[in-house]
Amino acid sequence: MSVIGLAPTSTDAGTTDMLPVLGDAEFLALARIMQNDARIHLPPAKKSLVHSRLARRVRENKLDSFQAYVALIERDAGERRRMVTALTTNHTHFFRENHHFEHFRSTLLPRLRARPAGRPIRIWSAGCSSGEEVYSITMTLLGENAAEARWMQGRDVKLLATDISQPVVDAVNRACYSAQTVEPIPAPYQKAWLVPDDAGFRIADTARRLVTARVLNLFERWPMRQQYDAIFCRNVMIYFDDTAKAELEARLVDQLAPDGFLYIGHSERLIGAAAERMQACGQTIYKPRDTD
Ligand SMILES: C[S@@+](CC[C@H](N)C(=O)[O-])C[C@H]1O[C@@H](n2cnc3c(N)ncnc32)[C@H](O)[C@@H]1O
Prior knowledge:
The chain is an alpha/beta fold. It folds into 2 domains: 81 residues, Chemotaxis receptor methyltransferase CheR, N-terminal domain (Chemotaxis Receptor Methyltransferase Cher, domain 1, Orthogonal Bundle); 191 residues, Rossmann fold (3-Layer(aba) Sandwich). Helix content is 41%, strand content 21%. The chain has a 7-stranded mixed β-sheet with strand order 8-4-3-9-10-12-11. A 3-stranded antiparallel β-sheet has the order 5-7-6. Helix 5 crosses helix 6. The termini are far apart. The site of S-adenosylmethionine has 25 residues, from loops.
C-alpha cells in the first residue's frame, strides 16, 4: 500500500503503522517556529527526534502529513504551544549536580538563617521541569527534620518554579513522585519531607506550600519585580544559541540580589555581559563581582 506522505514503521505491538514523513522543508519550518517561540535551536541532527516526538501530534490532529501539521500550527496558537511542549526535553532528577546543593547548604543557608527575620527569602528554579530541582532546594532549606526547619517559622520564604511547558508545571503542583524517582533524595530528607501515597510519595505540605509553580517562557516578559537570593537555571541554556544564552544570562544576573548566587548546568558557561559582571565561586556557581 502506498500512502502519500506516510512511511510504514513497526509498532511495539508488531503491527505495521504509518508514520508521516518529515521533509526538510517542514523540518526547517518547525525549527524556525521553535527558534522564534522558545529560542530553542534545532540543528539538522535533531530531525529524527523532531519526527518521533511530533508524529503523535500529527496523528492526534487526524492529519496525514507534516505539511498539514505546519499549516495547522501557523493558525492554531494552542497546538503551537503543544508542539513547543512536545519538543522540550524535561530530563531531571532529585539532587542533580549535588555540589550545588552542598554549596547552598554550606554557604548560602547560614547567611539566610542569620538574616533579619523581616527580610524576604526568594529562590527561583528557572526551567524547573517536573519539580525535582525546586523540591531539592526546598528540602535543603528546611534541613533534615522539623527542628532544623524551625528557623523558617514566621519568615517570608518563597520558591518560584517556572517552565515553558504546562504539563511539567502541573507535575510541580501535584508534587507526587514514584519510589524510583525519590531514590536520590538523602534518607533524612526522605524521612522528613516525603509522605507515602498510592502512586509512590508526595512532598509534605510543609515543603510544598513554599513553592509556587508557573508557566513562563524565559524569553518573554518576567512579571517578578523582586530580586532572588539564588537562581537555579540549569541544563536549560544548552538548548539555546549564543545570542539567546547571552540575553538570558544578562537578565538572570539583573534578577539576582547583589549577594545572591547563580547556579547553572555542568556543561553551561556564562558569556557576554553576564561573564563580565559575575565571578565564579565554585563549579558552575557564580556571584556578582566584588561581593563577599
Ligand atoms: C533538561 S530540563 C532541566 C530541568 C532542571 N533545571 C534540571 O537541571 O534538572 C530543561 C527545562 O527547560 C525548559 N525550557 C526550555 N526552553 C525554555 C524556555 N524558553 N523558557 C522556559 N523554560 C524552558 C524545558 O521545558 C525543560 O523542562
